[in-house]
């Protein structure tokens, strides 16, 4: 049989009505296919491929279709159903070369089913659970015709003031790198072309989490060693896992915006790391080069961006307007444009779109009658994952688990807040489908106990905060404000509390407080909620706090006044059920903090793996002339890796297989974990390393491995960790990743602070 050229396959497919398309014959190799196609493309068609638009009020749908059919758009984001995207794909297949569109979306922690926010997912330290959340999200997104997600977001963040802390996986390089891989695997499966998977575009490249003072969009100034050692590895891990795309950060790095940063985008990403996929600017970032003060106007901005290697321009027309002029004037070369086009077409090829432009859009007859149908949700997975993300921070006198009997007063502005359950990037999730804490408790107790409810306080009473929160979403109020005087709301809540056996107070942040552009200058629970808690405490009833928030908060007063405190982040569609599972002991909490919790905002940035210094504060020694704040107890409130259980765990001392490690060799560290309590439970055994003396000051400890272990009550298990020479390496002053002989400390603990220790020598 005569073999059709790849383009002929495409054209012949496109000529068929959408529903008649069958899986095509194999295309030519990617390289040949794209080369053939590019030879036929006009300059305008090439530049069209570089344009990524947001589906929104800027253009009407007919205008968009017209532009697509004219070959002026390469992809879109923010349209999330098959019937929305099909006409656009039809338009693309009416264009001269019938190059398919791709459809992207911010699928960050779920799509229709919302999983806990990313910071919460990280708190599970459970790679299977996190991977499952990404897999389900990909399945749901692909079933809604999405080809690419703008995720995972793997920016290391050590500054809780930054609102996007909620969107990432915390402060630790190793943990975030492990998660980066499982997220990419979950999104893409074995092949981003699979019709039930989506391509991952890791973001925000690079270092966005280190914006100065935690103020969003701010500049980043960082030493190369710190970049390589702490901030870059998670992006690299996502790319090593095969992420097909990279979204470029909005910030500058040592003065050069990422969007115009040739070192970042070419030397590091392309040459050193060998990335071959597509790069996408963040929203409007190319034109922002003018505001950064590195480009005089849009003309220069477009030149800097295309020269740096920014393939797609998000939601602006700047490439379309400027690239032809830049080419005509000789300021850029044809190859600058061609390189970008090749990457975009390559990504479309990898997403399987040339083989079948409708592979995720499907046939109209198969479109879901109701895109929000219950049957499309994955509630069981969401509940199971959410339970694993909850972190028990305090539990005096076995206050938890609660008994399903008597009466329980559920109080607080977040107790019945469906929008807030869903968290910061809730994609296509709808609040009406999320289970609130109130609903969760009611479902759990049935008629065995009474759940009494009062709101007790508004999330905030600061007009500035409220105006900010309600400005985020246009079609509904993000935060509903109860107009009653605060004192009346508290009085009502106290009355309810007095008639109950125990108080559960759901307090913290509304989800908009931990979001893009939502940087905070304090980390306190807002004032009206604190006043409510004071009043509840005064009732003398046992007080359980259910905390909802997207960042570490300064919890000193709340840790003092509560009997038990459960960190629940924003737990997603099934959050209320998951929280009830833990509160009533149907699930034994096993989460661990993925970020250090400070005592106050003044300690920030605070993180466990700080560099060794000459005058450290040492507990028990006199504090003067030591690194500390003299007006506050030193050290964080809660260490990285911390989290309690309803059972008790004990760790034995560490046994090393040898007191020395040879270059290229390995060493085994073993420890016995015992569940000495009365319930089955899981915990995370964490292994940290310290290089005692090196050519550069090293962190006081660094996570190098962990195991999440489930033990039956009374059970013990010996765990083995293999350390290799690679674990001992660091970036030296020449940015070489190398180790140096000498002494190393191995620390193993159930959090980063309370550890057993052994030492060995690298020979
Ligand atoms: C801006 C955000 O910074 C980025 O994370 C997101 O993917 C894009 N907007 C698209 O929504």
Which characteristics define this entry?
23 helices, alpha/beta, single chain, 763 residues, 8-stranded parallel sheet, 6-stranded mixed sheet, Rossmann fold, Immunoglobulin-like, binds 1-deoxynojirimycin
Task: Provide a descriptive summary of the structure in words.
Helix 3 packs antiparallel against helix 14, helix 8 runs parallel beside helix 10 and helix 13 packs across helix 14 (318-328). By secondary structure, this protein is of the alpha/beta class. Mean pLDDT is 95; it is low at 1-25. Among the domains are: 379-594, Glycoside hydrolase family 3 C-terminal domain (Rossmann fold, 3-Layer(aba) Sandwich), CATH 3.40.50; 649-762, Sandwich (Immunoglobulin-like), CATH 2.60.40. The protein contains 23 helices and 27 strands. The strands form six sheets. It has an eight-stranded parallel β-sheet with strand order 9-6-5-4-3-2-1-10. A six-stranded mixed β-sheet has the order 11-16-15-14-12-13, with helices on both faces. The protein is globular. The structure holds 1-deoxynojirimycin. 1-deoxynojirimycin binds at residues 106, 150, 203, 247, 282-283, 516.
């Amino acid at each position: 049989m005569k073999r059709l050229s790849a383009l002929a396959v495409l054209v012949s497919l496109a000529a068929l009505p959408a529903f008649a398309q069958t899986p095509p014959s194999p295309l030519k190799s990617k390289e040949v296919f794209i080369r053939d196609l590019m030879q036929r493309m006009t300059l305008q068609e090439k530049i069209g491929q570089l344009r990524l638009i947001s589906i929104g009020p800027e253009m009407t749908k007919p205008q968009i279709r017209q532009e697509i059919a004219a070959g002026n758009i390469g992809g879109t984001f923010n349209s999330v159903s098959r019937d929305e995207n099909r006409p656009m794909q039809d338009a693309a297949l009416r264009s001269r070369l019938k190059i398919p569109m791709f459809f992207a979306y911010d699928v960050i922690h779920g799509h229709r089913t919302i999983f806990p926010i990313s910071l919460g997912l990280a708190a599970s330290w459970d790679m299977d659970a996190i991977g499952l959340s990404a897999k389900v999200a990909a399945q749901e997104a692909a079933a809604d015709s999405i080809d690419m997600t703008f995720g995972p977001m793997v920016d290391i963040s050590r500054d809780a003031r930054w609102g996007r802390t909620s969107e990432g996986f915390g402060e630790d390089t190793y943990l975030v790198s492990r998660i980066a891989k499982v997220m990419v695997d979950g999104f893409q499966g074995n092949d981003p072309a699979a019709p039930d998977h989506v391509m991952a575009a890791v973001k925000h490249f690079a270092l966005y989490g280190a914006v100065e003072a935690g103020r969003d969009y701010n500049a980043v100034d960082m030493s190369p060693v710190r970049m390589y050692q702490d901030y870059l590895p998670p992006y690299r891990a996502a790319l090593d896992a095969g992420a097909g795309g990279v979204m470029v950060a909005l910030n500058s790095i040592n003065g050069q915006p990422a969007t115009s940063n040739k070192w970042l985008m070419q030397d590091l990403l392309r040459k050193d790391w060998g990335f071959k996929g597509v790069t996408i600017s963040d929203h409007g970032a190319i034109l922002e080069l003018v505001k950064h003060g590195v480009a005089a106007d849009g003309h220069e901005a477009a030149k800097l961006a295309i020269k740096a290697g920014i393939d797609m321009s998000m939601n602006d027309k700047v490439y379309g307007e400027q690239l032809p002029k830049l080419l005509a004037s000789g300021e850029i070369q044809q190859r600058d444009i061609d390189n970008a086009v090749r990457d975009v077409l390559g990504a479309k090829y990898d997403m399987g779109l040339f083989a079948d432009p409708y592979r995720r859009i499907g046939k109209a007859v198969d479109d879901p009658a109701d895109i929000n149908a219950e049957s499309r949700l994955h509630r069981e997975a969401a509940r199971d994952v959410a339970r694993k993300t909850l972190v028990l921070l305090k539990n005096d006198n076995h206050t938890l688990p609660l008994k399903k009997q008597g009466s329980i007063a559920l109080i607080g502005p977040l107790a019945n807040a469906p929008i807030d359950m869903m968290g910061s990037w809730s994609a296509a999730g709808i609040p009406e489908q999320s289970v609130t804490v109130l609903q969760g408790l009611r479902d759990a107790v049935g008629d065995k106990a009474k759940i009494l409810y009062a709101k007790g306080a508004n999330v905030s009473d600061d007009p500035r905060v409220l105006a900010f929160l309600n400005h985020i979403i246009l079609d509904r109020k993000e935060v509903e404000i109860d107009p009653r005087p605060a004192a009346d709301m508290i009085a009502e809540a106290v009355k309810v509390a007095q008639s109950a056996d125990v108080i559960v107070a759901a307090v913290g942040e509304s989800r908009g407080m931990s979001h893009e552009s939502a940087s905070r200058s304090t980390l306190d629970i807002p004032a009206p909620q604190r006043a409510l808690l004071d009043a509840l405490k005064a009732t003398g009833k046992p007080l359980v706090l259910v905390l909802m928030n997207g960042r570490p908060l300064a919890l000193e007063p709340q840790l003092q006044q509560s009997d038990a405190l459960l960190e629940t982040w924003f737990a997603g569609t099934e959050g209320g059920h998951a929280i009830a599972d833990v509160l009533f002991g149907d699930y034994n909490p096993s989460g661990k903090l993925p970020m250090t919790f400070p005592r106050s905002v003044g300690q920030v940035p605070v993180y466990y793996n700080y560099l060794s210094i000459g005058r450290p504060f040492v507990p028990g020694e006199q504090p003067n002339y030591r690194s500390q704040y003299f007006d506050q107890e030193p050290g964080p409130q809660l260490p990285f890796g911390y989290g309690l259980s309803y059972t008790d765990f004990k760790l034995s001392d560490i046994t090393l297989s040898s007191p020395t490690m040879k270059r290229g060799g390995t060493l085994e560290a073993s420890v016995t974990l015992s569940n000495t309590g009365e319930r089955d439970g899981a915990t995370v055994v964490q292994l940290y390393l310290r290089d005692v003396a090196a050519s550069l000051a090293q962190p006081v400890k660094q996570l190098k491995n962990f195991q999440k272990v489930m033990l039956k009550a009374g059970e013990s298990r010996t765990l083995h960790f293999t350390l290799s020479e690679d674990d001992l390496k660091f970036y030296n002053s020449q940015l070489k990743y190398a180790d140096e002989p000498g002494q190393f400390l191995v620390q193993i603990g159930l959090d980063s602070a309370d550890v057993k220790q052994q030492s060995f020598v690298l020979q």
